[in-house]
Amino acid sequence: xxxxxxxxxxxxxxxxxxxxxxxxxxxxxxxxxxxxxxxxxxxxxxxxxxxxxxxxxxxxxxxxxxxxxxxxxxxxxxxxxxxxxxxxxxxxxxxxxxxxxxxxxxxxxxxxxxxxxxxxxxxxxxxxxxxxxxxxxxxxxxxxxxxxxxxxxxxxxxxxxxxxxxxxxxxxxxxxxxxxxxxxxxxxxxxxxxxxxxxxxxxxxxxxxxxxxxxxxxxxxxxxxxxxxxxxxxxxxxxxxxxxxxxxxxxxxxxxxxxxxxxxxxxxxxxxxxxxxxxxxxxxxxxxxxxxxxxxxxxxxxxxxxxxxxxxxxxxxxxxxxxxxxxxxxxxxxxxxxxxxxxxxxxxxxxxxxxxxxxxxxxxxxxxxxxxxxxxxxxxxxxxxxxxxxxxxxxxxxxxxxxxxxxxxxxxxxxxxxxxxxxxxxxxxxxxxxxxxxxxxxxxxxxxxxxxxxxxxxxxxxxxxxxxxxxxxxxxxxxxxxxxxxxxxxxxxxxxxxxxxxxxxxxxxxxxxxxxxxxxxxxxxxxxxxxxxxxxxxxxxxxxxxxxxxxxxxxxxxxxxxxxxxxxxxxxxxxxxxxxxxxxxxxxxxxxxxxxxxxxxxxxxx
Length: 606
Known about the structure:
The protein is an alpha+beta fold. The protein is built from 17 helices and 17 strands. The strands form four sheets. It has a five-stranded antiparallel β-sheet, with helices on both faces. The protein has a five-stranded antiparallel β-sheet with strand order 7-6-10-9-8. The chain has a five-stranded mixed β-sheet with strand order 12-14-15-17-16, with helices on one face. Helix 4 crosses helix 6 (120-139), helix 13 (419-434) crosses helix 15 (464-482) and helix 14 (438-456) packs across helix 15 (464-482). Residues 1-23 have low confidence and may be disordered.
């Protein structure tokens, strides 16, 4: 993995610097390509335009209609995608209660008889969750939503209003009799889209909106907990239309699943609406006829139709005469034949070079362009091969230099013992000697010598058993200084003791816990390291889990940057194991917890 990382990095850094061809060769190739492209432009563009200018044949009427239809279909696809994306955002808002355990618990309590058994304070806490916690999530989802309303099964109402949205529901409003409520219940947990309706359930609000509703169900028992609805203003559809380019006089119409009008960029008659709803491809109006291109949004069954006026097409064809048929047909035929011949001649070699460059960019330095002939393109291909040779040599040199430097840095960090640790340890030895604790002094000296011997060994990997022995010696020396202030507990799955990890990977974490977490603390602290193999929910493969925690002073993660030791641990972990991860969680006055997860498939045994 480390080889791939360095190769990819060096390729990205060095390829632009070495991709240079002689200026004279570039100018020669550029002039040649310019001449050929000018010839291609003249053949494929000028000749057909001359035929069109002379007079376009009338049989192109159908062709222009097809092109107009294709453009409309492209526009319709883009518009449908925008609306679908917006409806998906609304849909995601309706699953927000599922993302918060406190909200789901409050809904469960309000939908059962347990609510009456709660104390007033417990009821107040549940109400605060639905009145404040849930709205704080919903308000951050989208700024252009008119608001959401949550209706638990006990008949209560919770509203999340924006600035212009009333937060008071009409007293006694029959929510369960509304079509959108019934539709959400029938959907049984799936999203239900509702067409245009008035917000008559709110005080002093008479806006027309379209909505997305969902029945919230208990994930464990599938029991209904409530209905959530998100309202959106139809004015948002106008904003979407601003980015859509339509022909003059074209109309955009959106109908809901009941064929009711949701939106129209121009006024349409009831008869036109009925024709669109019937699925007709041509709609007749009093003044004009329209060609209809439609598409249905699968999730909501809304129909989006674009109406293109026939008069728009006729205006482009009023100067068409039969005399231009021969010129346009002959020019188009010649252009097509020469276009495919010349474009294949010019474009194919460049496509092959592009493929070679892409393979080189991915790190395949053994690929070469097959040079044919002696023209300008062949010269460019030969220069490309030369560049690949030189680039491969340069990457190889740079890779070895970077790898050597990185290994030297790692060994320096491995062999490093903090001066203040040695200073405190030696002072502890003096204290043990003065108090006559010769046996404990001897054990401490043996522990220090073992640590020094271990750090000076020239090996980059060690068994977990060796790492644990080293940490036990380190913690034993710290106990000489801190005595009863620190308690160390280390546990390890016996099956994991023979697994290999980078040497001294865990010691910086233990050292940080003691120096920054336990030493400043004014009470007895506990330092734990648990190592075991476990399965991750939803994953088939097991991981080696290393959990190191203390109950010291802790810190605020957002205000403290990682030190050199922790950065070194994280970088070595990522370079050694492709799927490994390291997470740090800490809270002020509560302690710090570090968790390392390494896929077992990436770990070797010693």
